[in-house]
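FAQ: What does a multi-protein file look like?

Like this. Sequence, then tokens, then the next protein.
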Amino acid sequence: MNLIQSPVAVIGAGTMGSGIATVAARGGYDTVVYDVSEQGLTRGLDTIRSFFEKSRDLGKLTAEEASAANARVRGTTDITDLATAGVVIEAVFEDLAVKKELMGQVESIVAADTLLHTNTSTLSVTAIASGLKHPDRLVGTHYCNPAPLLSLVEVADGRHTATSARETCIEFLRSVGKTTVVTKDRPGFIVNRFLIPWENSCIQALDSGLGTIESIDTAVTGALGHPMGPFRLLDIVGLDIHQQVATRLYEQLRDPRFFPPPMVERMVSAGDLGRKTGRGFYEYDNTRLFGS
């Protein structure tokens, strides 16, 4: 039984937002996806639908389950449509001013007991919550990307987050099949403190000729036990997103291991962002973010 009142609202229909919405709908929640762009919203809803179709084709969901999950999702460009949500998950790009403004808007239209989550790992949860009249209700949740495929979510309190808000957040995440770890409100949390320097090292190894894209990915999956290689993962995340996250962490930590290598700038400038553009480290016949 779901612990949180439906619907779940997700703000942002990009890679992360569509992934989180997929998780909520698959978990049995009516889900509304909000985006300011009609085009972006359509693309995000297409991504969600494609994921359920792929899951059906692979036998991970029955045809009935896939159809029901897809039927639980709807989109909107009107933020007031989020007013009845039991939980609102903000998943827009990593811009503090934008996140603060959005969460302030949301707080003004939802019920007093609606859960408010911000998906971030590079920005301060405390700073995002400072735009709220009641900062105790905001919890930081970092869904590992791709959200529908990876089970881990990092949970971080802001300075004024209520213990009850965090505990209810964890209950919700477990109800959609997620494993949670609680971490401090620090740049990168746990995962990106390790992941970003490692991905940068793999990119540098490729650029220096140490190995090919395929050989490095094979070495990582075959010897280190990772479910996918760094370049497959970067193509799903998007080179533009990696660049943004790495740059923000470098700006805060001033550790050169976080600074994105020159190859990242070249690929972003060329528009080779990964699966969503059809070309990144690999080339793709389709741009479904969660396809094979």
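And here is the next protein:
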Amino acid sequence: MNRKELDPEQSPSARFGQRLRTLRDERGWTQEELAARIGCTGTHVSAVETGRRPPTRRFAASVDKAFGTGDRFERQSRAARHTALIEGFPEYVAHEARAAEVRLYEVGVIPGLLQTAEYAAALEADAVRREAITPEQAEERVELAAQRQASLLRSPSPLILTVLDEGCIRRSMGTSAVMDAQFARLLDFAEMPNTVLQVAPFSMGARRPFSLPITILTMPDRSLMSYAESTHRGHLERESTFVVHLLAAYHQLQAEALSQAESVAMINQLRKGTP
């Protein structure tokens, strides 16, 4: 029987399909036998294995149950469904939604958790203009930003500490009205009881411990995770011992950055159009 060769580097769907086929072969199951176990058709299994159909969350959860793989396939399916997102980011978002503490450092743009819908749309519209993504993918990214923000409105509230490089608030995005609303959103964020907002001014120079954006999560069991991105993929570090030094560097960053009061004053000055 001829079988389509799979290239796991082609897409998240292809990687999911290859892993599915590998485990199915290890069990000695045909596509029809797996389909019977998870409640679909052999044609459906074939389409997912060859990357012609992205796995739904329900499909992936059924596969995990059939193979006894915990939530391994369900987590991997997120990347296959969210084609507009960088590899590794959907998995990070799932952990972010459960974190007790979120520490952000961003360079260049306002981070997604603090963006207004209009700011997010303007940011993604530029990516569409550059043909980096499609209009549909832009819409998906804007929707995800809103979903991430909603997921943090829970009880008990997570602690969210944010340090923005000065360039984040000085870079215009969209119209003046969009930026005014975004500044208002930042000021409202700073007033929340579970948040801290600081700006790392240009004058810090080489004292910045990070040159790229970084996120550090403290989970409910006090374990640590970190997330950082390269051009094409994100890396989620789950081993706490590797994250501890990043946490120490983040504390140094906070000590060197402007206080929240000073940061709010800088944002207010920009909002009023004063240097």
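Q: Is there any per-entry metadata?
A: Some entries carry free-text notes. For the entry above: DSSP finds twelve helices and six strands in the chain.
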